[in-house]
Structure formats: structure tokens, C-alpha cells
Amino acid sequence: MSISEDFSLLFNYSPDLVSAAPGRVNLIGEHVDYNQGLVLPFAIDSVTNCALRLRDDAKILISSKQLNSGIYETKSSDIVPKTGPDWTRYILGVLWSLGIDRGVEILVDSEVPQGAGLSSSAALECSVAFALNEALQLGLSRIDLVRLTQRAENDFVGVPCGIMDQTISLLGEAGHAILLDCRDLSPQLIPVNFEDNGLRLLIIDTQAHHALVDGGYAERRAQCESVSGIFSLDSLRDLSRERLAAKGSELDSKLYSRALHVVTEIERVKSAVSSLQSKDFVGFGELLNDSHKSLRDDYEVSCPELDCAVKISQESGALGARMVGGGFGGSAIALVKDGDMGLIASLVERGFAKACFKSPRFFDAVPSDGARLIDRRN
Ligand code: ADP
Ligand code: MG
């Protein structure tokens, strides 16, 4: 059944329109966003759809096909940060940051797996924001929507995320990644044509979620701030490898390793862009491998499941593989030859079973368009 049919059954009227916004994968540039570094995400072809109808009163009715919790109801005047059941906050937060003061009915349905590091949260926020902007003809640009959806997640949901996920979900273009400079937030489209070159990007969701996620993340951020403080810099973006090495013996060894990851990872993003531009996919794959090693050994945010997925992929013919996202679980990516996809997936599955890990899930990541309108009732 289509989302419009589901909507009609649930709310008794057809939706005014239906929007779509994708999840994303970050090719390279991990744990550098909060160091004002460079990231290279692309929008994937899995989307979250939002069907929406404006009401004549102030009632807000929201529902998700992923949750069997019926309809959540509130009033536009009652929307205040950090209220409502957890999942509703991503939607209420967008209504709040866009300043919506009238009633709406919203049904969302998503193909983006939750909590796998593919940013189902941004896909949800951006599909709702895009739908509201169209239905109410607010005239907000995509860049405006990036800022407003990030504000929803930061200030309403209470998650201190950077700007990457919303940027790529709204500004992504098929066949391209976006090189995003997290210092000045300037986005630059970079062609990514794996498929034309007989390659595919395999996403391996390890389904592992280790308890370290929140504490580990906060600790890494604080360590990066300590090092930039020691060098009297605003962020590690301005630290060169030479300057870090020159002071290496005076620095605490953990702090040194953390900074080394950030400095080398930013260099790797620049090299990755050159590799993609010159279609040097072997070189690009090596950068993915180096990124994983750095995240595992210097930044220490990997885990046995991620290391297992990456190692098996590398040993089975992948051009490169690495963990993606915050770490301590979540997903890995592997750049593989078209014909090897099934084989590598089954070898990873077997390796996981042997190690008694939860069964992994696999997705095929194709660089796709950002948020869009897919249906409108006249
Ligand atoms: P990620 O963005 O990596 O998938 P997050 O923890 O940031 O993980 O966001 C996941 C949360 O977003 C879910 O726990 C849920 O609250 C909310 N969410 C995402 N997609 C949906 C959906 N389709 N329906 C309801 N809630 C959703
Ligand atoms: Mg998220």
C-alpha cells in the first residue's frame, strides 16, 4: 500500500502532498566535523517519506509506519523542546523550528534503518521540513532548511549533531558526494561514479551498539579541545602534521594519537577527492583502509564487530573498507567489485556467525538525489 493510501485510512482524507528525503553515508572524514574539518558524504537511495495535510484547526496529529503506536496528538501551541515521546521530537522539533502555528496531519514511512549510522534522524527531519515548506509555501531555501532542521535536532531533540547529515539529505545530488567544509560550511559537489567503473559501495550494518557511544564521543571531543588549547588554536583544523610531531614528546601519548587521527584524516579527505576526480579507485580504497586503521588504533573508536567486517572485506577483494559514523558499533563500508558483492556479504556473514556476533545487515549505497516532492494533490 502506498503512503497516500495509508494516510487516507489513518486520517480519513488524502494528504496534500508527499515528500522524500534520503539517509546518507560518509565516504571519509570521520570524527573531524567537530574539529572544523572536511567530510565527504553522499545521499543514499533509501528515503523517508512524509505525507502531510494541513488542518483548519490547531491540532497536530503524527504517526510513523515504523512504530505501531497509533496517532500522537498535540496542539501547535503546546510544542516545547524535549516534550513528547522520543521519536515524535524529531517531527515536533521541525514544526517548532519552522515556527508552524497551525494544525497538520503527518504520516512518515522510512526505508532508512534506524541507528545504523545512515542518519534516519536527518532523513526524518528533512522530509518533514521539505513537506511543510512546500505545503505552506514558506519560501525557505534548501540551505535555510539545513539550518532549521539542525536546530530542531540540537535544541528540541537535544542531540548535539553537526551540520553534515541535514546538508547532504537536502543538498545531495545523484552521482555526487558533497565535500563539506565544516569550518565555513561551504558545500562542493564531487562526482562519484563507482557503478560506471564496475564498483559498488557495500554498507555492512554490524547491528552492534556498544555502551561507550555517548561517553566515548564526549571524551574524544574533549581530548581534541585539549590539544587545540595546548597549541592555542581554535580547532585541530589548523594543526599541521609537522607542528604536531615537533611537540609529540611533550604531549600525553593518548592526546597525541587523538590529534594524529584528526590531522591525518583531514589530509585523507583531500586525497580522496583527488582520487575520485582522477578515477583512481585503488588509491581511494587505500585511503579507506588507512582511515579505518587510524580510527581503530589512534582514535580507538572501533569495536570487534567493525574490525571483523572490515578485515574480511579487505581480505576478500574489497578495494578498501572502513568503519563509518561515531564508532563502537554501527556500520562499515566496503568498496567492492560489482561481481564480488554477494561473495563478500556471505563471507562477512559467516565470519560474524563464527565469532558469535549478531547477524549483520547489508545495503547497497548509490549516490542519489536529496529531498524532493514526490506527489502533490491539486
Ligand atoms: P541514525 O540517525 O543514525 O539512524 P539516531 O539515533 O540519530 O540514529 O536517530 C534514530 C531515531 O530517529 C530513532 O530512534 C527514532 O526516534 C527516530 N526515527 C528515525 N526514523 C524514524 C521513523 N521512520 N519513525 C519514527 N522515528 C524515527
Ligand atoms: Mg542521527
Structural summary, described in words:
The chain is α+β, with helices and mostly antiparallel strands and 378 residues long. It folds into 2 domains: 3-190 and 368-376, Ribosomal Protein S5, domain 2; 191-364, 2-Layer Sandwich (Alpha-Beta Plaits). It is built from 11 helices and 13 strands. The chain has helices at 3-11, 88-97, 120-135, 142-157, 164-171, 213-230, 241-246, 253-277, 281-298, 304-315, 341-354; strands at 17-26, 38-39, 41-54, 59-64, 72-75, 104-110, 176-181, 187-191, 199-209, 320-323, 329-337, 361-365, 372-376. A 6-stranded mixed beta sheet has the order 5-4-6-3-1-13, with helices on both faces. Strand 10 and strand 11 form a beta hairpin. The chain is globular.
List keywords for this structure.
378 residues, alpha+beta, Ribosomal Protein S5, domain 2, Alpha-Beta Plaits, 2 domains, six-stranded mixed sheet, four-stranded antiparallel sheet, 11 helices, 40% helix, binds adenosine-5'-diphosphate, binds magnesium ion
Secondary-structure element string: HEEEEEHEHHHEEEHHHHHEEHEE
The number of helical elements comes to: 11
Number of domains: 2
- Mean pLDDT across the residues is 95
**Class from helix and strand fractions:** alpha+beta
Q: How far do the termini sit from each other?
A: 21 Å
CATH architecture of the largest domain: 2-Layer Sandwich
Low-confidence stretches: none
Beta-strand content bin: 15-25%
Overall 3D shape:
globular
Concise description?
The chain has 378 residues and is α+β, with helices and mostly antiparallel strands. It has helices at residues 3-11, 88-97, 120-135, 142-157, 164-171, 213-230, 241-246, 253-277, 281-298, 304-315, 341-354, and strands at 17-26, 38-39, 41-54, 59-64, 72-75, 104-110, 176-181, 187-191, 199-209, 320-323, 329-337, 361-365, 372-376. The protein has two domains: 3-190 and 368-376, Ribosomal Protein S5, domain 2; 191-364, GHMP kinase, C-terminal domain (Alpha-Beta Plaits).
